């Protein structure tokens, strides 16, 4: 039984909220008008369209959206929220461990700050899930973590449970690697470098060679342990290494590899390392020249996680085409749009899709670039399914819903806000329900207008 089936079978007794007369846009851009959505215990339990009737009681709050748009929560698969806290200070800058060019043992979760003010502001832009990555000042900076953009005091409550519906209950894991200018600049005056791209490639090969040697030792140990006679010859414990085990797990296919790189030479070098040591690359991040090598990227089934029009602040961002995303989409390459918060503020992820559409990306692909494509790249498509299973993906956003009727009380909207785990609703309330005439977001410091 998959995640959707398990959640739908669960008995629910909490209050329900009815969203009536919505225009639903699913994660692949399909539009369904005149939709009614039922939310209970933080789960979408029913969705009906057209004249199909839904049963509900007088106690159930009903919100008439009058045709306003409803979409799944947006996903940003490249963010540093929580590890580069706002305001940005040296004391809270924990995105990259720059003491060495290789730190595969680093973990974003060890520096994650649930009280980062940016998390709530980002959420107000409709982003409900983010992949928090370590940084790009060194070559392998460590493992990222998927978080829910919600208000909480607990790191554990912030983390998304990625063991659900995965084989053997293994959590999904994400490694950050990087090539290009950043690493040259960071280590050019450090003994041993790297100071050039030649040095960068050496360090990658050195690290993965260490991991491959360790993996072979583990395999030989396990081979002996399979038989009684072999176990009698074992004189050491199972070999492992805090420094290199993460890369062993990459070689075993247990970690999704995300690579920062812009120039084509960096992309090709990483392809070479992947072929030499036998690991797959899930996504190339930024990769603003990837339209020049679309065929090679397509052959490897790699997702491109990129900006829509960022360019010019360093050499590797020059000579960039604003039509890159359209070119990649025409080649059949999955495109996920990102903000790289705080490089570009994460609140405006939907704006990236607007820009991409302006420069030729089809509307449905622009929607999927901030919803279903990053979900699949992160392995979360078991939570993010087609419209009939939309209820399993808890986040929901309602864009610019103006409540013009006096029917809706502040208590009702508070029920909608707090009753759903990571719901993001941009709902200005009528002035009679607020002392200041401000929206719910403004009253809870979620508007982010000062950022």
Automatic annotation (TrEMBL):
Domain of life: Eukaryota
Protein name, as recorded: Amidohydrolase-related domain-containing protein
InterPro entries the UniProt entry points to: Metal-dep_hydrolase_composite, Metal_Hydrolase, Metallo-dep_Hydrolase
Organism from which the protein derives: Paecilomyces lecythidis
